[in-house]
Amino acid sequence: MAFDRMASSISYNDIMVSLRRRFDEINDVLPVFDDVRSKRLVDGARSCAIVGCGSGEMELAFVEHCMPAIETLCAVEPDADSVVDLRARIARQLPPNVRSAVVADAAQIWAADTDRVFDVVVMFHVVSDIPEPDRRALFDRLFDAVIRPDGLLVIVTRTGRRDGTQSTESRIMEALNRRPYVDSKWYEEARRLAESVGFTACYERRYGLNVNVENLDAAYFGFYARECDQPTSLETVERIVREVIGDAKWSRKEFVFGVFRKPAAHS
Ligand SMILES: C[S@@+](CC[C@H](N)C(=O)[O-])C[C@H]1O[C@@H](n2cnc3c(N)ncnc32)[C@H](O)[C@@H]1O
What we know:
Elements: H1 5-8, H2 12-20, H3 25-38, E1 47-51, H4 57-66, E2 72-76, H5 80-93, E3 99-103, H6 107-113, E4 118-124, H7 134-146, E5 147-159, H8 168-177, H9 185-197, E6 200-212, H10 218-226, H11 234-245, E7 250-261
Helix pairs in contact: 2-10, 3-4, 6-7, 8-11, 10-11
Bound molecules: S-adenosylmethionine.
Residues 12, 16, 51-54, 58, 76-79, 82, 106-108, 124-126, 129-130 line the site of S-adenosylmethionine (SAM).
């Protein structure tokens, strides 16, 4: 990943604030949260780590909605701006009886160091941000030590559209990096990795949302600049993004919400 000086002055928090103004993901993912709650998948969880959680908006909504027994929350996020908002959100939203800690570090560093064990680890929209080989080492460590036997790893990541058409995001990335982008590979790779270290998929559900792509701003272009294989000016990113988006007002993204279990027998 590489980006120029202008793009690098845009924090991940700026990018997420801009992106989250363009859609209402909590509204779109709520039927999945309802389903997870009615199936009682995580209702007994007492400890949870939310990893790569940004300001924690979606993760705290999930915890509030689906984990009534929560006693301990650990939030792991390396972006300093996001951590400021995260701390404020935790203070505002988390019930006072829940003990919380914020770790301002990358997931792989936190996981390698921690001696804590969690009932549930949540990773929403972050798996693809963690470069290999760190990603595999992280999943190994989550399985071996960080998640308790019979505990769960919850992952949300992009997938292909149900109608088979390519997402705008992938078309932009292809135009920027001149290599193929296949939407379905994001979740498929995460699932394959989780299963290869020993987790078993126990719940998968697709959801989608519509992103408003009008009034594009620097933070929106900054998102794509971060993903460029070569250093690319924000102006170049903007030109390519505008060419791909054209006159469109909305673009559709689809995701899989996946829950993976560590077998009870594994100690
Ligand atoms: C697309 S954002 C998603 C944020 C949040 N989970 C959400 O759904 O709104 C990706 C987040 O992962 C964080 N991140 C990037 N690399 C990371 C790493 N190695 N370990 C932990 N978090 C990371 C970024 O700082 C950013 O907050």
